[in-house]
C-alpha cells in the first residue's frame, strides 16, 4: 500500500558484547514490506519466525545498536516508530528469543554491558531481569544461583524512561494521610489487597512473594516462581496448555527508592484456570 515501508528483520540471532562493542551475530534476515501499524501481524503472516517468546527491538538505519528501543505492539515506542516512518522509510527490527538457558542469559547481559560502557558507567534508573511457590524450605534458603545476578543485566533495562513509565502515568495521586501512599511515582503494596501492579514497591523480596501468594489465592490463579534470589524474584503462570500463558511478573531492587520494585508485569492471563491455586 501507499503507507508501506521496509522492515529489515534480524532473527535467530543473539546479542554479544565483542571487545566492548555490542554485536548481533548469526541468524537470518527477512525483508518485509508493510504498513508500520501492521508490523507484528506482518511478521506472523510471513511465517518466518515463531513470535512466541521473542523480545523485539527497533532502530533506524542511521543509528547504532546502542540506540535500540524495546518494541511492544501498541506501546509508546511503537507509536513513536510509526510516527517516525513519515520521514524514514526503512526500519531495522531485531528479535532474540526469551530463552531460560545460559546462552540466552549471556546474550541478554551483553546488551546491558555494552550500553553501560557507552554511558561511561552511568546507572540506569531501572534495573531489569525464573522460581515455584511450592518448593521445600532448604531450596528456599539455599544460596542464589550465580546466574540470577546476571539476570539483572537483561534487556528490561533497555526500555527508555517514557516506555518504562507508560503503564503508571495515569495513576491518581493519594492523599497525604494514606500510609500506602505513592512516593515519587512508586506505589507501595497494600497487604490484603491481592493486587499486583507495575512499579509497585516492596520492603523485601519476601514481601513481594507474600503479595504474589495473596494474588494467587484471591484470584484462584496457578502461578509458580521461575527465578529467585536475594535481589530478584520472578513468577509466571503455571497453567499447562498448548500455548503457554503470558502472565508474568518480575521484581528486583531499585536503587533510586531503595526498595524492591515490579519492573515487568504482563498482567493478562491468556489461559483458562485449571482449578489449581498454589
From TrEMBL:
<feature type="compositionally biased region" description="Basic and acidic residues">
    <location>
        <begin position="116"/>
        <end position="151"/>
    </location>
</feature>
<protein>
    <recommendedName>
        <fullName>Transposase MuDR plant domain-containing protein</fullName>
    </recommendedName>
</protein>
<feature type="region of interest" description="Disordered">
    <location>
        <begin position="102"/>
        <end position="151"/>
    </location>
</feature>
Amino acid at each position: 500500500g501507499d503507507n508501506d515501508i521496509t522492515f529489515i528483520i534480524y532473527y535467530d540471532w543473539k546479542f554479544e558484547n565483542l571487545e566492548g562493542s555490542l554485536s548481533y551475530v548469526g541468524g537470518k534476515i527477512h525483508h518485509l514490506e508493510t504498513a508500520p501499524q501492521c508490523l507484528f501481524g506482518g511478521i506472523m503472516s510471513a511465517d518466518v519466525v515463531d513470535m512466541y517468546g521473542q523480545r523485539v527491538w527497533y532502530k533506524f538505519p542511521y543509528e547504532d545498536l546502542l540506540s535500540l528501543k524495546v518494541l511492544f505492539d501498541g506501546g509508546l515506542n511503537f507509536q513513536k516508530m510509526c510516527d517516525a516512518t513519515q520521514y524514514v522509510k526503512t526500519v531495522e527490527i531485531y528479535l532474540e528469543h526469551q530463552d531460560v538457558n545460559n546462552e540466552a542469559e549471556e546474550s541478554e547481559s551483553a546488551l546491558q554491558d555494552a550500553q553501560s560502557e557507552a554511558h561511561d558507567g552511568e546507572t540506569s534508573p531501572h534495573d531489569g531481569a525464573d522460581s515455584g511457590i511450592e518448593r521445600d524450605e532448604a531450596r528456599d534458603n539455599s544460596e542464589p544461583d550465580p546466574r540470577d545476578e546476571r539476570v539483572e543485566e537483561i534487556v528490561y533495562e533497555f526500555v527508555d524512561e517514557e516506555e518504562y513509565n507508560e503503564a503508571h502515568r495515569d495513576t491518581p495521586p493519594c492523599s497525604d494521610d494514606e500510609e500506602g501512599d505513592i512516593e515519587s511515582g512508586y506505589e507501595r503494596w497494600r497487604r490484603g489487597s491481592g493486587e499486583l501492579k507495575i512499579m509497585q514497591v516492596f520492603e523485601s523480596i519476601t514481601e513481594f512473594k507474600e503479595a504474589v501468594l495473596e494474588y494467587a489465592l484471591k484470584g484462584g490463579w496457578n502461578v509458580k516462581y521461575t527465578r529467585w534470589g536475594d535481589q530478584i524474584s520472578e513468577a509466571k503462570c503455571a497453567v499447562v496448555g498448548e500455548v503457554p500463558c503470558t502472565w508474568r511478573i518480575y521484581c528486583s531492587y531499585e536503587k533510586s527508592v531503595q526498595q524492591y520494585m515490579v519492573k515487568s508485569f504482563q498482567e493478562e492471563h491468556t489461559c483458562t484456570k485449571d482449578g489449581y491455586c498454589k
